[in-house]
Every structure is written in C-alpha cells, then in structure tokens.
Amino acid sequence: MKGISGLSIPEPSLRRLPQYHHYLAELQSRGVSLVSCSTIGRDLKYIPVQVRKDLQFTGIIGKPKVGYSVAELVLAIEAFLGWNSVNEALLVGAGNLGTAMLGHERFSRFGLQVVAAFDVDPSKIGQYIYGKAVLPLDEMADLVQRMNIHLGIITTPAEVAQTVADEMVKAGIQAIWNFAPVKLNVPEYMIVHNEDLYSSLASLSCKLAKRFRAPLQENLRLN
C-alpha cells in the first residue's frame, strides 16, 4: 500500500494508524484540538520520530511548535485507510465466529458493511443473523457481480477454506479477510489478510508460561 507521497507504507506503520485513530478520537471526545508527536508518542509508548514518520504517509504535515489539528488528523487517517467510504463485503461461514462478526456494529464505523452471509448448512440457509440473510454458497457469484463486491470474509473451518477461496476468486472477489487457520493458495493479484487466532493464542500462552517459569528457573540457578 502506498502513502500520499507515493512511497509504500511499511506494514508496522499501517498497523499503527488505527491505534493513532482510536487515540485521537478519544482526544476529540475530551475537546482537545491540537496534539504533538511527542504527546502521542508519550501516551502510546512510541518514539515521537516514528509517530511523525507514520503520520506523514497520510499526507498531513504538522506545524512546528504547534503540532496537528486533531480533527484534521482524524480525517486524514480515515481517508488514507479508506474508512470514509463504504466497502461492502460478504461473509462465508455462518458459525459462531461468523455470527459474532455479523453482529459487530463497529465495522460500519470503519467503512465495512457486510451485506450477506453464505453457508452450506441447510439449517442456516434462509435465516437472518443480525439482519443479514444467510444464502446458499452457490448464489455467491451472482451477488458479487450484481453488487460489485470486492471483499470476502472467510470464517469457515480450515478444511473448506481453500474451496471457499477458490469460489471467491472465480466470482471476482479481489481481497480476502481470512479467519480460517490455513494458508490460502490464491492468484498473486489477490489481497489476502490472515487473522490467525491460534498463533496469537500460542504466542500469548508461551509468554505467560515463561513469566511463571522464570522465578522457578532463577531459584534453580541460585541453589
């Protein structure tokens, strides 16, 4: 992804922008109108120089000794991330995770509108989940073409995720948000973002285990 300057934005910087946005929205709610990189860095535990570099990708430039207009900075981040326009999406896999995502109202705040869900389970087809219809998977391509949808969300079990991805590619989907714990094989032009919940849990569990093992290991060395 390229910033306003035409330079590609590093993934770490891209992931920090929503953090800045959340922080700035909180400042707005408290009536704060100006903010500096030093203040942002202090509150979010980032180096001010890094904050400045991250924000430059949005095209906004702060004023020396003044900082940034909080309102303008919020709008700049939203425009850069595409949150000021609506991206319609479809979701495949109306299980527990899919149902939770369909009911997550805050997605619309960030420019995402899930218009329908798809599944192969006859007991789910025809139902409405948080106002979204659950349709047969074989109707997905027609909806994609009729509504010109570019984003697909996969919340299926791992063993069927690749089949779903193949169907999305054939239907004309351009980007996939994948929650299934499997690496998808898709054409190079496809944009795929994987949310590996199991890897995150493994990392968290390992760090927690190390914390509790550390005192024991220290005692063993002392003895």
Provide tags for this entry.
seven-stranded mixed beta sheet; 2 domains; 223 residues; two-stranded antiparallel ribbon; 46% helix; alpha/beta; Rossmann fold; Arc Repressor Mutant, subunit A
Description:
α1 (11-29) packs across α4 (70-81) and α2 (37-44) packs across α3. The protein starts with 10 loop residues before the first helix and ends with a helix. It has helices at residues 11-29, 37-44, 48-56, 70-81, 96-102, 140-147, 158-171, 197-222; strands at residues 34-35, 68-69, 87-92, 112-119, 128-129, 132-136, 151-154, 175-178, 191-194. The chain contains 8 helices and 9 strands. It is of the alpha/beta class and 223 residues long. The protein has 2 domains: 11-81, Arc Repressor Mutant, subunit A (Orthogonal Bundle); 87-199, NAD(P)-binding Rossmann-like Domain (Rossmann fold). It has a 7-stranded mixed β-sheet. A two-stranded antiparallel sheet has the order 1-2. It is 46% helix and 17% strand.
Outline:
The protein is α/β, with parallel strands linked by helices. 46% of the residues lie in helices and 17% in strands.
Secondary structure layout:
Layout: H1 11-29, E1 34-35, H2 37-44, H3 48-56, E2 68-69, H4 70-81, E3 87-92, H5 96-102, E4 112-119, E5 128-129, E6 132-136, H6 140-147, E7 151-154, H7 158-171, E8 175-178, E9 191-194, H8 197-222
Parallel strand pairs: 3-4, 3-7, 4-6, 7-8, 8-9
Antiparallel strand pairs: 1-2, 5-6
Helix pairs in contact: 1-4, 2-3, 6-7
